[in-house]
Amino acid sequence: MSGALIMIVEDEKHILRPLAAYFRAEGYRVETATDGEAALSAARAEPPDCLILDVMLPKKTGVEVCRELRQSHPLVPIVLLTALASAGDKVVGLDSGADDYVTKPFDLVVLHARVRAQLRRARRVAAAATTPPPRQLQLGAAEFCRDKRLLTREGAPVKVTAMQLKVLEYLIDHEGVVIPRTQLLDEVWGYDAFPTTRTVDTHVWQLRQRIELDPNQPRHLLTVHGIGYRLLLDPES
Predict the structure, then answer these.
(1) Distance (Å, rounded) from C-alpha 230 to C-alpha 171?
(2) May I ask the CATH class of domain 133-231?
(3) 130-141 burial string, b = 16+ CB within 10 Å, else e?
(4) In whole angstroms, what is the distance from residue 169 CA to residue 159 CA?
(5) Which pTM value belongs to this model?
(6) Amino acid 134: pLDDT
(7) CATH 1.10.10.10 domain span(s) along the chain
């Protein structure tokens, strides 16, 4: 991943400078911007391999940059930096098209790990565009056959409901991305249904019982506290 282009957008120079220095020291190419309009223009001209984007920016907010960039470059990985602590604020950021978020104050090592995860996911997405996707997926103790929509464990079929399968397939299709509970409600249950976020939690809990080696310490179907869920096919990657 060294040599990848990282764009860092932050208007506070005491944050921007050490961030840029850190990623350059790690072998990345780094571009910077200090306002939303400059960031959007630069990212459109040369899409970065990953965009680290502060939410509170002059001229255009990070959320506005994210929404507008997604229209022309839907696959650029975006990690938001946010000083906003409420779950609602974070959901707005993710709904705008961001792939992940880190709350200020943050640890550089943690931010770097999030960036590496997004770079890995972007490579998998690029590879999937040129090769047929695997139809048999290993998920912890279970296997999922996409063609048959069949979940098995040690060769035996696992009983799952149609809605549990829909949730699982949606999370697989967005592997590595933080999915808010509200997004699952809208996209899986639909606007004309009336479930609650508690319904989502129940379905995820039931899926964990079926796929995780230890449902109490999940490695594939992870909770992002206060937001939603993230599915990892290969937690070691």
Answers:
(1) 7
(2) mainly alpha
(3) eeeeeeebebbe
(4) 15
(5) 0.65
(6) 61
(7) 133-231
How confident is the model over 58-95, as pLDDT tens digits? Answer: 999 999 999 999 888 888 999 999 887 666 666 777 77
Q: What is the 3-state secondary structure (H, E, C) of 6-19?
A: EEEECCCHHHHHHH
pLDDT digits (tens, 9 = 90+) for 171-224: 988 888 888 888 888 888 875 556 677 888 999 999 999 999 999 999 999 998
* d(C-alpha 28, C-alpha 26), whole Å: 6
Is residue 134 reached through a cis peptide bond, with omega within 30 degrees of 0 on the bond before it?
no
Q: Phi, psi (5° rounding) for residue 221?
A: -105, 95
What are the start and end residues of each CATH 3.40.50.2300 domain in the chain?
Answer: 5-129
Query: How many angstroms separate the CA atoms of 99 and 25, rounded?
Result: 24
Topology given in CATH for the domain delimited by 5-129? Rossmann fold (3.40.50)
- Side chain identity, residue 16: L
How would you classify the pairing of strands 179-180 and 228-231?
A: antiparallel
Task: End-to-end CA distance of the chain: give it in Å, rounded.
Answer: 13
